[in-house]
Amino acid sequence: MSHRAQSTNGGLLPVVASGSTRFEIARDAAIETEGRVVFDYQYFAGSGWFGELPVGATRVRMAARSRLRMGSSVRIGGGTQIVVGPDAVVEIGASTYINPNSRILCAHAINIGRRCAVSWRVTIFDFIGAHSVVIDGRQLDDVAPVRIGDDVLIGAGATILRGVTIGAGSVVAAESVVTSDIPAGSLVAGNPARVISNFVSWNG
């Protein structure tokens, strides 16, 4: 199945999706692309795919006036959920891929950089959920943007919480829960995630 999305230069570019992908998009919401993007990319990979298999359909739900902006060659894994609230914006940079069964839940703004690798079952969200949370007498903002720099690797099962900035080139270990900012080029692990090394590199 082939869908089409509005490009940032006003032309039309293809969004490629398997038959199990579900789009629920408000009339005044939009998917904006800079090049071809693929949803449920394992479906098209044939016997060459290795890794966790999708559980359920890939789903994109976009509320009124929301935007999903993607660079070229973005790939979204099967079973992934992208939910964008009213007036909210999700941005995913070129050549980033998100593996199966991950969740991006956006109430305001989530920005994922270029060439990022997001592993299986990663959850990224920018809100608490209309709950009043007070820590040491200070009430937390319900919504705060998430910013993930270029060339970031996020391991399987990690959770990225509201208000976090992850510096470029960083690595988040599997099952980590990121509650605070991460300097560029760092390896973090744990719950809450803590810096293990400030000198990390990766490729692939």
What does this protein look like?
The chain has one helix at residues 42-45, and strands at residues 2-7, 12-17, 22-25, 30-33, 37-39, 59-62, 67-70, 74-76, 81-84, 89-92, 97-98, 103-106, 109-112, 117-118, 123-125, 134-135, 138-139, 146-148, 153-154, 159-160, 165-166, 171-172, 177-178, 187-189, 194-197. The chain is built from one helix and 25 strands. It has one domain (2-170): UDP N-Acetylglucosamine Acyltransferase, domain 1. By secondary structure, the protein is mainly beta. The chain is globular, with a radius of gyration of 17 Å. The protein has a 16-stranded mixed sheet with strand order 21-18-13-10-7-4-1-2-5-8-11-14-19-22-24-25, with no helix packed on it. The chain has a seven-stranded parallel sheet with strand order 3-6-9-12-15-20-23, with no helix packed on it. Strands 16-17 form a two-stranded antiparallel sheet.
Report low-confidence residues grouped into runs of 5 or more: 1-12
Classify the helix fraction into a percent range. under 10%
Distance between the termini: 29 Å
Number of strands: 25
CATH architecture: 3 Solenoid
Quaternary state of the chains: single chain
Q: Per the principal axes of the C-alpha atoms, what is the gross shape? A: globular
